[in-house]
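Form 7-S
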Amino acid sequence: MKKISALELIRKPDHMTLGIELPLDNDWSPAGEARRAAQGRPRGVPDLDAQTDLVRKADDLGFSAIWMRDVPVFDQVNMGDAGSVHDVFTLLGFLAGVTRKAALGTAAVVLPIRHPLMTAKAAASVDALSGGRLILGVASGDRPVEYPLLGLDFETRGEAFREAVTYLRAAWQPGGLPVNGERVPALDLLPRPVQPTIPLVVAGQARQDDAWLAAHMDGRFVYPGSLDKTAQQARGWADATAGRGAFISAFHLDLLGRADAPATPIRFGARVGREGLVAHFRALAAAGIDHIAINLRQSARPLAEVLEELASDVMPMLTRNPAALAA
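Output:
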């Protein structure tokens, strides 16, 4: 059987795909804020009680990916967001066991704060446990607090990022582990990834120039921005990679109950009815965006209800072929 890349789960030639970004809690909505305060949780720490059931639901409904962040330290003063809360690789391993179809993606693992051998081992383990569904989003990290806590130099993270990428690519292939720049056949990494190689998707710039990223990354994950800016970024990435690289962005969504409700901007997204959302997403699809990771932390509606509406009324409308919608 031919081995495929997990990128094929999110990159389809005829339509843009949707994924979900963890945590699955609407703790940034007014009702969620009130619930958080009543429970005594710090701001930025989500309630994860329903998350596993919601992840299963998203997988069953056909969302193409589940994305999670890498936040080793909860910095209440400078960041105020605990992200996905759990250790990213522990969470990936758990989700490999409770999902069946969706890609499992990171947005993103901070490569310089871990030894690349441990990252390679953890990522290969997740890929094996999930049947080849891991997309490893990677970054150099923008939170200075983590580096001194680990005794690492924040200013050299760009060089450390490049070295880690080189190590990962080699460690996932037969021929021995890299040691001081040379492969040692007597040392091996197990388990071997199910995929021919685990796809690497850069989040942000990772302190690298565009030419290096195009040559070494399988995809790019950009911060949410305006339609024009995102379209320009997608065109630039497609040109730089000759169409080889996947292009991914995110969108923070508060999906309103009235389908024709007009859009109101919120940070990194919009408060909008599904008709306006479909129009915006179809414009992104036409601009060459392959995949959108949806963040629902600002959602006023129950998340299960929103997932169902997105699956039934939004995802089928994201074809790149207008004739297919008219048929």
